[in-house]
Each structure stands twice: as structure tokens, then as C-alpha cells.
Amino acid sequence: MAGQPQGGEGQDTSVAASELQDQLDQQNGLISQLKEMIRERDASLKTREKELEETNAKLSKLKLQTKAKAKAAQKDAEAKKGSEKADEESSGGDQAARAKVLVLKKKLDAKDKTITEKEALLEEKLREVANMEKMIAQRDEVVQTLSSQLERLHGLGADGQEQDSEVKIVFFLEDFLHLSLGF
């Protein structure tokens, strides 16, 4: 009788195998959800990158316009000064020219401030994109780890100890997903 399996052991093995299969199905479902989340994040990143590129283009255009306006204002100011000296206009004309130059300088300063603000915004967006790429890389790494664990789980033999250790790994990975990724 020592060589024959007892009735309870056969049931335990089939129950453990069915539990293991249920856990495997759950893990596959979690991996599918994780992959979908990664796809959604990738789409979100692409959208943000496109917005960032558009912002960069607008910022470049704004910089060029500001430079052109500054040069035009400077040329106008120089032309005014040259014509004032040649015509020997009264001091009232000088004051008007100075006032116009001051107005132009204020406009130029305002444009420079806008450019600085947009550059700061651009840098912030670049940092956000880098952080998101880092998060996605970490999640990809977790997906790879889970996939390899599942492949090992599929390849298990009938040895109960091996199955127990693999079940522990599955529980650990499930806890890891819940804690670090918010599942």
C-alpha cells in the first residue's frame, strides 16, 4: 500500500492545480490591463509631445517676431534721431521721440518677459515628459518581469514545492502591482 497514492493526495493536487490555473488566469488579466494602461499612456505621451512641439514652434515664431520688432523699433529710433539732428527740431520733438522710444522699450520688455515665461513653461513640459517616459519604462520592466514569471509558471511540473514557491511569487507580484502601480 505504500506505493499507491491515497485518495486525499490526488484531490489536493487537482485542487492546487485548479487554484494555480485560476491564479494564472487572474495574472493574465492583470497583465492585459497593464498593457492597455501602457498603450493609453503612450497615446497620452504622443499627444503631449505633439503639444510640446507646437508650443516650441509658437515660441520660436514669437522670438523671431520679437527680434524683428526690436530691430524695427531700433531703426525707427535711429531714423528719428538722425532726422531730428538734420532738421534741428525743437526740444518738444525730442521729447516726443524719447516718449516713443520709451513706449517701444516697454513693449520690447513685455515681449521678452513673455518669451521667458514660455521658455520656463517649455522646460516644465519637458521635465513632465521625461518623468512620464521614466514611469512607462518602469512599468514595461514590471510587465516583462510578470511575463517571465508567468512563462515559468506555465512550465512548472507536478512538483508541489515548486508550485508552492511559484504561487508565492504570483502573490508577491500581485501585491507589488497593488502597492506600486495602484491596481
Automatic annotation (TrEMBL):
Residues 1-28, 45-96 are annotated as: Disordered. GO terms for cellular component: Golgi apparatus. Coiled coil: none annotated. Residues 1-10 have a biased composition (Gly residues). Residues 11-28 have a biased composition (Polar residues). InterPro entries: GOLGB1. It comes from the Eukaryota. Residues 45-56, 73-85 have a biased composition (Basic and acidic residues). PANTHER family: GOLGI-ASSOCIATED PROTEIN GCP360-RELATED (PTHR18887), GOLGIN SUBFAMILY B MEMBER 1-LIKE (PTHR18887:SF5). This is Uncharacterized protein LOC106168597. It comes from Lingula anatina. The gene is LOC106168597.
